[in-house]
């Protein structure tokens, strides 16, 4: 019996008993068998979440008490960290050590939101009338659908679940069908921590099937989604009929600008990390290198040398530096993307094909790839590959670097390298992206907001704003000396 759906405080099989096998991207072995929800299961989960929210049980807990629950979840995650990291590594194919880093980030996320629970919420407003008290209060927003991607499965779900719990929302989690195991483990911990039944629910299955009700159903108040732009557009259209609140964390095509006066050695090393970490399957990957013409040859030559030496391997390969792509379908899509780039005029300098090592034959391994001779009108510069593919463009002036860096529909993140602090600050300010790194690329902290400008999304996760997404704001005006309004004549 496979009972991995969590609905109304109970672990259940799919109502038709259907299961789904999860395959390792490293060698296609079956790493888990999980329940695959039916439409009836989804509706049951929505009903359970709605009932628990409307009962007022969890919403009546103080922020402090809900913060304490979230702190307890962090403690339990710490206890089970390596077991969860193993599941994450099995599902995604990423190295076990990287999955351990991810779990550490998940724990920090829960601790951050736990601490926000202990803070004062709401405020008084001085309305200038002595006998009126005016209060702004923060209330839980309602029932939320929390839909996550496969690249950082637990982390992206944690960014939603932790604030939803502190806010007092009830919710249904739906991880990607490719990577469900860590969400199941998290839900077991949420249960063990003492979360009231019906508050947290878990649905598994392909988004195109089980996702529809999670965005259409009128009993859902908020959809918080992390994933691709096209799915985000579908969700936005569907949410319009019932004016749902939306939090969307979508893709990115992130500019990484290197000026000639930068610390070139550090810039190159970070450029390699930015583009090829987790084989480019990172929403904020710095896959769009924009380099000042005078240092182009030096920078690109060294990046190509380094990219060609990156060692690929599976979860337990100690010599590996990064892993496979998530699926065969994704491998095909990255392959087609590079072929199209070359047909468009990009110069392929390294990679551009599947690894042909015998030990990679059963996995979805694609070589780190550098495409030179690119410009902003090209598909490969405008569209995300979500694979290990760096495009290179050149610039001759600060203004041109900014113009190129902003010439994208996305606006998630970007980096700028220069030893001139004023110039770097000007460029950081001019770039229309949600996170900018100066002389660095990639770090983030749960205390700092994360999210996109333009088509990279709506709203913010993490920081204090990441909690606000799950709160309604109410103004309560109390007149302590009631009197007639006197507006209309009383005839
Ligand atoms: P998808 O958009 O394909 O899927 C994301 C999630 O949505 C999955 O759980 C998927 O389910 C589900 N889904 C798919 N179709 C629907 C639907 N019609 N209704 C409801 N849910 C649906 O993205 P990927 O998983 O491929 O993730 C990669 C994308 O995510 C990239 O574009 C990346 O940039 C972005 N991303 C953004 C981040 C950010 O912080 N801005 C962070 C991480 C990733 P299933 O997989 O089971 O079909």
Folded structure, characterized:
By secondary structure, the protein is α/β, with parallel strands linked by helices. 39% of the residues lie in helices and 20% in strands. It contains 15 helices and 20 strands. Strands 14-15-16-13-12-17-18 form a 7-stranded mixed beta sheet, sandwiched between helices. A 6-stranded mixed beta sheet has the order 9-8-7-10-11-19, with helices on both faces. Strands 5-6-20 form a 3-stranded antiparallel beta sheet, with no helix packed on it. Strand 10, helix 8 and strand 11 form a beta-alpha-beta unit. Helix 3 crosses helix 4, helix 3 packs antiparallel against helix 6 and helix 9 crosses helix 10. The radius of gyration is 24 Å and the shape is globular. The mean pLDDT is 98. It binds NADPH dihydro-nicotinamide-adenine-dinucleotide phosphate.
How many H/I helices?
15
Cα-to-Cα separation, first versus last residue = 76 Å
Look at the helices and sheets and give the structural class: alpha/beta
Overall outline = globular
What would you call the quaternary organization? Answer: single chain
Biggest pleated-sheet summary: 7 strands, mixed
Bin the helical content: 25-40%
Instruction: Note poorly predicted spans.
Output: none
Q: How many strands in all?
A: 20
Mean pLDDT: 98
Radius of gyration: 24 Å
The largest sheet has its strands arranged as 14-15-16-13-12-17-18
Bound compounds, please? NADPH dihydro-nicotinamide-adenine-dinucleotide phosphate
Strand content: 15-25%
């Amino acid at each position: 019996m496979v009972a991995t759906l969590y609905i109304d405080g109970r672990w259940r099989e799919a109502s038709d008993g259907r299961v789904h096998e999860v395959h390792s991207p490293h060698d296609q072995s079956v790493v888990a068998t999980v329940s695959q929800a039916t439409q009836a299961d989804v509706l049951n989960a929505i009903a359970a979440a709605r009932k628990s929210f409307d009962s007022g049980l969890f919403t009546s807990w103080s922020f402090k008490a809900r913060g304490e629950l979230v702190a307890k979840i962090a403690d339990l995650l710490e206890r089970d960290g390596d077991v969860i990291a193993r599941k994450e590594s099995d599902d995604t194919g990423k190295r076990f050590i990287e999955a351990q880093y991810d779990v550490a980030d998940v724990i920090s996320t829960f601790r951050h939101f736990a601490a926000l629970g202990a803070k004062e919420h709401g405020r008084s407003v001085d309305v200038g009338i002595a006998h009126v008290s005016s209060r702004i209060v923060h209330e839980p927003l309602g029932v939320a659908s929390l839909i996550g991607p496969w690249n950082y499965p637990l982390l992206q779900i944690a960014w939603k679940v932790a604030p939803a719990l502190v806010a007092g929302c009830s919710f249904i989690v739906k991880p990607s069908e490719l990577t469900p195991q860590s969400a199941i483990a998290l839900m077991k911990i949420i249960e063990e921590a003492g979360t009231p039944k019906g508050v947290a629910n878990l649905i598994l299955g392909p988004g195109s099937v089980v996702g529809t009700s999670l965005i259409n159903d009128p009993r859902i108040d908020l959809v918080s989604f992390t994933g691709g732009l096209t799915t985000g557009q579908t969700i936005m259209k569907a949410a319009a009929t019932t004016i749902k609140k939306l939090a969307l964390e979508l893709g990115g095509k992130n500019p990484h600008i290197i000026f000639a006066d930068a610390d070139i050695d550090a810039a190159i090393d970070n450029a390699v990390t930015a583009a090829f970490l987790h084989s480019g399957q990172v929403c904020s990957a710095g896959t769009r290198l924009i380099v000042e013409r005078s240092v182009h040859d030096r920078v690109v030559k060294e990046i190509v040398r380094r990219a060609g030496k990156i060692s690929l391997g599976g979860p337990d390969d100690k010599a590996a530096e990064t892993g496979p792509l998530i699926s065969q379908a994704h491998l095909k899509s990255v392959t087609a993307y590079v072929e199209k780039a070359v047909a468009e005029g990009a110069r392929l300098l390294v990679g551009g094909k599947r690894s042909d090592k015998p030990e990679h034959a059963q996995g979805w391994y694609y070589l780190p790839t550098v495409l030179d001779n690119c410009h902003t009108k090209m598909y490969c510069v405008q569209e995300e590959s979500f694979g290990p593919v760096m495009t290179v463009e050149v610039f001759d002036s600060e203004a041109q670097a900014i113009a190129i860096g902003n010439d994208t529909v996305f606006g998630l993140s970007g980096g700028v390298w220069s030893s001139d602090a004023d110039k770097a600050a000007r460029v950081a300010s001019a770039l229309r992206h949600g996170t900018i790194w100066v002389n660095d690329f990639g770090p983030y902290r749960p205390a700092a907001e994360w999210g996109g400008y333009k088509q990279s999304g709506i709203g913010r996760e993490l920081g204090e704003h990441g909690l606000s997404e799950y709160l309604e704001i109410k103004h309560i005006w109390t007149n302590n000396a009631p009197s007639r309004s006197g507006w209309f004549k009383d005839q």
